[in-house]
Amino acid sequence: MTRTLRRCLKMAALCTLGLMLSASPALAKDLVIGITQYPSTFHPNIDSMLAKSYVHGLTRRPITVTDADWTLQCMLCTSLPSLENGGPVLEKTPDGKDGIAVTYTLHPDAVWGDGVPVSVDDVIFTWEVGKHPQSGVASAEGYRRILDIDRIDDKTFTLHVDRRTFDYNDISSLNLLPAHIERDKFKDPTTYRTQTAFDTAPTTPGLYMGPYVMTKAETGSFMVFEKNPRWWGKAPAFDKITVRVIENTATLEANLLSGSIDMIAGELGLNVDQALAFEQRHGDRFHVQFNPGLIYEHIDLMLDNPILADRRVRQALMYALDRKVISERLFGGKQPVADTGVNPLDWVYADDVPRYPRDLKKAADLLDAAGWTRRGKDVRTNAAGAPLRFTLMTTAGNRTRELVQQVLQSQWKAAGIDVRINNEPARVFFGETVTKRKFEAMAMFAWISAPESVPRTTLHSDEIPTEANNWSGQNYTGYKNPDLDKILETIELELDRSKRKEMWRALQHIYATELPALPLYFRANAFIMPPWLAGIRPTGHQYPTTLWVEDWTVKK
User: Closest Cα partner for 444 from 403, 414, 416, 389?
Assistant: First the structure.
């Protein structure tokens, strides 16, 4: 064999190997996704956590959903009822108020993972659980508004609702429960929160009706999802999807580079600053996509704390911060300062609300007036000599949040405010500390909403979680304001968009003045994907990309 021939054969072998390696993703039947949080519960209606929504996007389908074009559409129903197509019927409630009857038909082929049809039985049972005062669901208000449900047949039902709202046909939050599995668990509503099969036996196929079913889960570590053989929709491309939980974002990045995971979810992955640095170093190997959205990073304040109950203290906390510097230096300006929880991307945004640029003199004047005085550079104290001190909590292992904490701590120190940091794993932070209002002063996290999402469950005084209501509701601050309650109760009843926008403006003014929470910035999501993966379309709102997992494909 000549040297030239040997060289050609060697080169051919190398070329063949290269082709095999480059083609291997196209032959992939499995996908491994990295996220930073593990769900505190798998029950779709108990607790509010993005990690749970993300994995449920693989296994479940809502009746209606807002898509990536910010349009409401049917997902588990056959057609979206609207006043224009004559679906809903205006009616009077038993007490003479304006109500509405809305009829839906579930997809005729929809079945749970064990083959039992998804039916009106599930709708009625879910309603019974949701409206029960002891069930512990995160947002019971929507269920309480349903006065009755008519069964037309096994797949068709009519909801009789006690009010006419602008989003009358959006029932995305009515997350169906399999009655044939959960009904026995609900015999004692007071213990249902801990007895649900979603947590005691989460790999039960009958809990799911999406493209995948959960086949294995190790708390805090990973979840495995395999194709649902009874899935009634478009077949997904991957036989198995593994979601690995890596709470430390630096470790998450290292796992991507080593090939232990294929992609990092934009919803729960690297923050913008980390993703920008990653793109500079590894942009030739991965596709990095930045997507702004309705993601509100903020600090919930415990208003039961007598110090934080003073509005002057809350306003001083804001004036002591330089959030513009945080946005520009940490996030390259990609995550703009927030004034309220309403994003400028949303049409109801008001641009004339009170704002809080850094002003240490204003902060000092407010704290002096509130009785917190300072000598030199010491921590401020009250008349009894107690220091002005708070504990700031967030999710442990999130490098960016921990960096932001340190910046906030330093800026507040300049104003004579002593802030201590105490972080917890996400499943503990959300599952216990926040949900049960156990934080002493400050809890930093994000709310993710849909377009024009009325924040009743987070701000109305009826939505404060307590032991008596089994920790239902999401008003974790304990905020009570009769004027805001009235706006929250009436804004959704206004069908005229121009009038509704004025009400939204009033809501934002109250929020920015009262500060039940401290607005920080609006987050952008960074999706980091291999070049061979296609079809992932960020939504920019609370509904995750996984709800359209059947559209994900492998490039050939």
Answer: 403
Read off the pLDDT of each residue in 338-348 and give the average, rounded to a whole number.
Answer: 96
Tokens of 423: 């972080």
- Give buried/exposed letters for 214-243 (b at 16+ CB in 10 A, else e): beebeeeebbbbbbbebbbbeebbbeebbb
> Structure tokens of 493?
């009843």
Q: What are 221's two structure tokens?
A: 């570590």
Position 498 in a domain: yes
> Got the DSSP string for 433-458?
IITTT--SSEEEEEEE--TT---HHH
Single-letter amino acid, residue 449: S
Number of compact structural domains in the chain: 1
CA distance 396 to 406: 13
The phi, psi pair for 135, rounded to 5°, reads -75, -25
For helices 399-414 and 272-282, the axis angle rounded to 10 degrees is 130
Q: Are 334 and 328 in contact (CB under 8 A)?
A: no
The residue segments making up the domain with residue 390 are 295-523
Helix, strand, coil % over all residues of the chain, rounded to 5: 35, 20, 45
Q: Is residue 515 part of a domain?
A: yes
Q: What's the average model confidence in pLDDT over 216-222?
A: 96
Checking DSSP bridges between strand 442-448 and strand 287-301, what pairing results, if any?
Answer: antiparallel
What three-state secondary structure class fits 388?
Answer: coil
CATH, residue 328: 3.10.105.10
Cα–Cα distance for residue pair 51/42, rounded to 1 Å: 9
Read off the pLDDT of residues 137-174 as tens digits, 9 standing for 90 and up.
877 889 999 999 999 999 999 999 999 999 999 999 99
Cβ(408)–Cβ(419) below 8 Å: yes
In a domain, 223, yes or no: no
